[in-house]
């Protein structure tokens, strides 16, 4: 079992910045992804970005150049630094951990989500 703890979020003006943090604990795999999806009011969520266990980064086009994911000194903790925020970035941000077996079977674990609101 894997447990996910999220922190961060809040209210910020357009052009401002926020930082989210996510920590995974429990029965972790040496092969994994950690990242975020976000969900605005509507039917579907949107991929934001992730970091692999090999430290490869991937971001959605909508946030490239504005968001970055970094590892903290604490084990299995990552941060999402969000800069130059726009109103369309508003939503609930969900951290996830994707566990991979040697045969590349996967299991996803999700945090509770944190609200990010960008408004003047």
Topology diagram in text:
Layout: E1 2-7, E2 10-12, E3 18-26, E4 32-39, E5 46-52, E6 57-59, E7 67-71, E8 77-82, E9 91-100, E10 106-110, E11 114-118
Parallel strand pairs: 2-11
Antiparallel strand pairs: 1-3, 3-8, 4-5, 4-9, 5-6, 7-8, 9-10, 9-11
- Give the low-confidence spans: none
Share of helix, binned: under 10%
Whole-number radius of gyration? 14 Å
The coarse overall form would be globular
What is the number of E strands?
A: 11
Question: Helices and strands: which structural class?
Answer: mainly beta
Total helical elements:
0
Overall pLDDT score: 95
* Order of H and E elements: EEEEEEEEEEE
Strand content: over 45%
Distance between the termini: 41 Å
Largest sheet: 7 strands, mixed
What is the gist of this entry?
The chain has strands spanning 2-7, 10-12, 18-26, 32-39, 46-52, 57-59, 67-71, 77-82, 91-100, 106-110, 114-118.
Features:
120 residues; mainly beta; seven-stranded mixed sheet; four-stranded antiparallel sheet
Question: What does this protein look like?
Answer:
By secondary structure, the chain is mainly β. Helix content is 0%, strand content 56%. The protein has no helices and 11 strands. The protein has strands at 2-7, 10-12, 18-26, 32-39, 46-52, 57-59, 67-71, 77-82, 91-100, 106-110, 114-118. The strands form 2 sheets. Strands 2, 4, 5, 6, 9, 10 and 11 form a 7-stranded mixed β-sheet that branches. A hairpin with a 5-residue loop joins β9 and β10. The protein starts with a strand and ends with a strand. The model has no long low-confidence stretch (mean pLDDT 95).
